[in-house]
Amino acid sequence: MTSFLVVGAGAAGLLLGRDLARAGKRVTILEARQRCGGRIYPLPVEEFGYPAEGGPEFVHGAAPVTRALMREAGLALVKRSGTRWNARSGILRPDEPSFPDADRFYQALMRVEADLPIAEFLDTHFAETRYADLRRSVTRTVEGYDAADPQRFSTLALREEWTARDDGEHGRIAGGYGALIDYLAAECRRRGATIVLDAEVTALGEAGDRLTAQCRDGRCFAADGAILAVPVPLLSEITLPAAARRQAAAAADIGFGNVVKLLLRFATKWWADATPRDLSDMAFLLSDATVPTWWTQNPQPHLVLTGWYAGPRADRVAPLSEADLIEMGLASLEAVFAVPAERLRHDLVAARAINWGNDPLARGAYSYATPRSRRALSVMTKPEGRIFFSGEALYAGPDMGTVEAALASGQETARMILSAA
């Protein structure tokens, strides 16, 4: 195969498109949005005072593909710093790195052989009342960090994630993930790839020895092969040939969670002295409020608080407007800091609430592993013709659901195609 269609100009699609084009293949990247990046969503600098992120924001752990690409692009990492606070149970205190009965939890976790949902694991091993805080802590982390449903989230995936080596500084990319996307898109074009925006693919069909992509606006594109690098919920919305359709059906066994991300820019750093505690160096805050997780841009001085509302609860706010979600965030801050919401509204300069579940080109935020996901990945990543699948949901390592997973999957897909050529 000498020519390829890549459906989706997110991190995976752009990296594999770049690598295929660099190897001399003719590449056309079709993107439904009017921008590249997919769930990487840079917001206007003038709105928040810096390249704020409506989607992923942090570089976690080793992230070797991300960091290598950053070096190529000349992008620096702004290391995360500051203090973590916990405002649960109405008391503000420094956040503890562990949770109640953590040693007993890890001992039971390491003995698991047959995978099962984490909710079932907790019910089996920690059902007693005395473990209520442990169950609450683990469940909150699964729902918040992994955006996952504990009734579906894989216990073995949690074990791999929580025991993985962490060999890199955590932080943000100077200029944001948008700068990485800009670099990749420019590299694709420099290597001869064509990027077509506002091109929503609704069907892939076979016409002799060629594949054709039909777009919603009637445009058609043809090539020898195609790679679908879209969020897994969208695979069922694209008409596919029978073999590819059977592969895509396995995606039902991959979890996909939702996130509502709130960005609130204020005129003052009111939280620094809103309580008897000195929160001037605050980085993260965990709470019992409706929107439970907040962070600052520390060490950068931007007066922005970011709220994170994830997992099954985020699915339940689909009917709420952006204004409703912003009010939910302000009410949560009022509950945590005992600062009247009216004062917060008066101090508010700019606000955004991005509900990824309501985005028709995403249908959620990112994937997570279920006990059946490994089988699904083996089905979907096995080359079975001229249609391939790629993206963060198809990465088998502990970074599933991250930008690193998307980039690594794109790189692996390109290598697989080129090795078979």
Quick rundown:
With 421 residues, the chain is of the alpha/beta class.
Rg over C-alpha atoms, rounded to the nearest angstrom = 22 Å
Shape: globular
At the fourth level of CATH, the homologous superfamily of the largest domain is FAD/NAD(P)-binding domain
Tell me the count of domains.
3
Q: Determine the fraction of residues in helical runs and give it as a percent range.
A: 25-40%
Mean of residue pLDDT? Answer: 95
Overall strand count:
19
Distance between the termini: 7 Å
Number of helices: 14
Architecture overview:
The chain has 421 residues and is of the alpha/beta class. The chain folds into three domains: 3-77 and 171-253 and 371-420, 3-Layer(bba) Sandwich (FAD/NAD(P)-binding domain); 100-163, no CATH class; 256-358, Polyamine Oxidase, Chain A, domain 2 (Alpha-Beta Complex). The chain is built from 14 helices and 19 strands. The chain has helices at residues 11-22, 45-48, 64-73, 102-110, 118-125, 132-144, 155-163, 177-190, 242-249, 312-315, 322-337, 341-347, 373-380, 403-420; strands at residues 3-7, 26-30, 77-79, 83-87, 93-94, 171-173, 194-196, 201-207, 210-215, 220-223, 225-228, 255-257, 259-266, 282-287, 293-295, 304-310, 348-355, 366-368, 387-389. Strand 14 and strand 15 (293-295) form a beta hairpin. It starts with a strand and ends with a helix. The relative contact order is 0.20.
